[in-house]
């Protein structure tokens, strides 16, 4: 049974996949689960992805995009089982199967668990820092202790122009926040704020998803290029056929603020743009 957080985790997983494993079960169809499943399928393994939610990635991407992602699994040859959780693992020294909450048992040579990311902040308790699923910061990465800043996965920042907070687990957030945090640390107060839009990418089954901005409930998906897949063809629990090419780009309402490729230039603004780009080469239908 594997998790994937470090280089050593990746090396261990690769060694096992190369040692003749035939059946992989991936728990969780988030970005890590989907990318692992994609790699396993590319290596020729029989892959099943188990996702407790009715569709993968709905909180992050919305339902339309989630259907596209479900379709990528199907087109890549992986079986996506949604709406069922994992009740336990079967086996002794080695895992041999995954027991689902609906009673099914999936035989497995390799199991990868891609769920449960959370910031490790226990060691900061009692330090005077405000902790709330991360280290609470103002818009400039400055914590409750003015001489302490936090950046990257652990930092939960006030979101500019809203009463909300945000903690983004993206490389670009960690990279760009360092600059803002250092300026505020040197100034001794918040003179700069972090206002870059979140940006991430994910490579799955030969397609690349790029996402910049915030998805808000009620956003309307507008197809800019390509075709919207039909709901029936993107049913998540089959290896459905006839799935049309996923759209290559779509966006929510609001003023355009550039494409994902120019992410450093993206800046938050009230009612700003939400943009997703999905590019091929896409798996053949
Ligand atoms: C498998 C995987 C795939 C990913 N793919 C993408 C992707 O495609 N695109 C993307 O944008 N993001 C991706 N991410 C997320 C991205 O890796 C993180 O957002 C990014 O690494 C966060 O950087 P960070 O510096 O905040 O934290 P980390 O990179 O986790 O670095 C934190 C470091 O601090 C060390 N540390 C922790 N606690 C302590 C302590 N108490 N004392 C001293 N050291 C400590 C840790 O050992 C670690 O080395 C992925 C993550 C994973 C796990």
Describe this structure in words.
α2 (about 30-40) links the parallel β1 (about 25) and β2. The protein folds into three domains: about 5-115, 3-Layer(bba) Sandwich (FAD/NAD(P)-binding domain); about 120-185, FAD/NAD(P)-binding domain; about 200-280, no CATH class. The chain has helices spanning about 5-20, 30-40, 60, 65-75, 170-185, and strands spanning about 25, 45-50, 80, 85-90, 95-100, 105, 110-115, 135, 155-160, 165, 200-205, 205-215, 220-225, 250, 275-280. The protein starts with 6 loop residues before the first helix and ends in a 6-residue tail after the last strand. It has five helices and 15 strands. About 20% of the residues lie in helices and about 25% in strands. The chain binds flavin-adenine dinucleotide. This is FAD/NAD(P)-binding domain-containing protein. GO terms for molecular function: oxidoreductase activity, acting on NAD(P)H. Keywords: FAD, Flavoprotein, Oxidoreductase.
State the main characteristics.
285 residues, FAD/NAD(P)-binding domain, five-stranded antiparallel β-sheet, 15 strands, globular, binds flavin-adenine dinucleotide
Straight-line N-to-C gap? 32 Å
> Structurally, how many domains make up the residues?
3
Strand order of the largest sheet: 11-12-15-14-13
The outline comes out as globular
Number of helices in the DSSP assignment:
5
Classify the secondary structure makeup into a structural class: alpha/beta
Helices and strands, in N-to-C order? Answer: HEHEHHEEEEEEEEHEEEEE
Number of strands: 15
**CATH topology name of the largest domain:** FAD/NAD(P)-binding domain
Rg for CA atoms: 20 Å
Helix content: 10-25%
- The CATH H-level superfamily of the largest domain is FAD/NAD(P)-binding domain
Uncertain ranges: 229-273, 281-285
Biggest beta-sheet profile: 5 strands, antiparallel
Q: CATH class of the largest domain, anyone?
A: Alpha Beta
What is the overall pLDDT average? 81
Q: Report the β-strand fraction as a percent range.
A: 15-25%
| CATH architecture type of the largest domain | 3-Layer(bba) Sandwich
Ligand kinds: flavin-adenine dinucleotide
Region (Disordered): 229-255
Protein name: FAD/NAD(P)-binding domain-containing protein
Domain Reductase C-terminal: 199-221
InterPro entries: FAD-oxidoreductase/Apoptosis, FAD/NAD-bd_sf, FAD/NAD-binding_dom, FAD/NAD-linked_Rdtase_dimer_sf, Reductase_C
């Amino acid at each position: 049974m594997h998790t994937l957080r470090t280089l050593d985790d990746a090396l261990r997983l690769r060694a096992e996949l190369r040692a003749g494993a035939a059946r992989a079960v991936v728990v969780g169809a988030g970005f890590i689960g989907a990318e692992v499943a994609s790699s396993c399928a590319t290596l020729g393994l029989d892959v099943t992805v188990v996702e407790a939610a009715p569709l993968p990635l709905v909180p992050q991407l919305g339902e339309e995009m989630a259907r596209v992602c479900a379709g990528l699994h199907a087109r890549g040859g992986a079986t996506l089982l949604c709406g069922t959780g994992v009740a336990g693992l079967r086996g002794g020294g080695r895992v041999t199967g995954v027991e689902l909450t609906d009673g099914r048992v999936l035989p497995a040579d390799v199991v990868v668990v891609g769920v449960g990311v959370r910031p490790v902040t226990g060691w900061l308790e009692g330090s005077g820092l405000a902790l709330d699923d991360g280290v609470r910061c103002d818009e400039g990465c400055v914590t409750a202790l003015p001489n302490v800043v936090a950046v990257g996965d652990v930092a939960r920042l006030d979101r500019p122009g809203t009463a909300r907070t945000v903690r983004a687990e993206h490389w670009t957030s960690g990279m760009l926040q360092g600059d803002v945090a250092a300026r505020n640390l040197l100034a001794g107060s918040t003179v700069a704020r972090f206002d870059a839009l979140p940006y991430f990418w994910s490579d799955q089954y030969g397609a690349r998803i790029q996402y910049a901005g915030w998805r808000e409930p009620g956003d309307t998906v507008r197809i800019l290029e390509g075709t919207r897949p039909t709901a029936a063809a993107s049913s998540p629990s089959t290896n459905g056929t006839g799935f049309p090419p996923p759209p290559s780009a779509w966006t929510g309402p609001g003023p355009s603020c550039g494409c994902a490729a120019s992410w450093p230039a993206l800046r938050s603004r009230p009612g700003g743009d939400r943009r997703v780009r999905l590019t091929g080469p896409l798996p053949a239908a």
